[in-house]
Amino acid sequence: MKNRPVSKADRFRVKRSEFGKLHSELEARRAQFDKALKLKREEVKELLANRTVESEEKAKKLMKKLAFAVKYSYVHGGHVKNEILGMLTFYNGGRSFLVRAKRKIRYDPGDEKLYMNIYQRFNRDVSVKAKVFVYIHGGGWIGGWPEAREAFTTRIASAGYFVASLYYGNAPAYSHPKMIQNIYKAFAYLKEHAEDYNIDADEIFVGGESAGAHLAAMAGCISSNPEYNARFELDERARRQKITGLVLNCGVYDLEKALTTGFRNVKVYTQAYCGKTAVGDLPEEIRREISPIYWVNADFPPTFAISAENDKLAVMTFDFVDRLFSLGVHTEHFHGTGLFALHAFAVSQAFKISRKAMKEVKEFLKKMSDGSDTAISENVAKKDTE
Question: Is the pLDDT of residue 58 over 60?
Answer without folding.
Answer: no
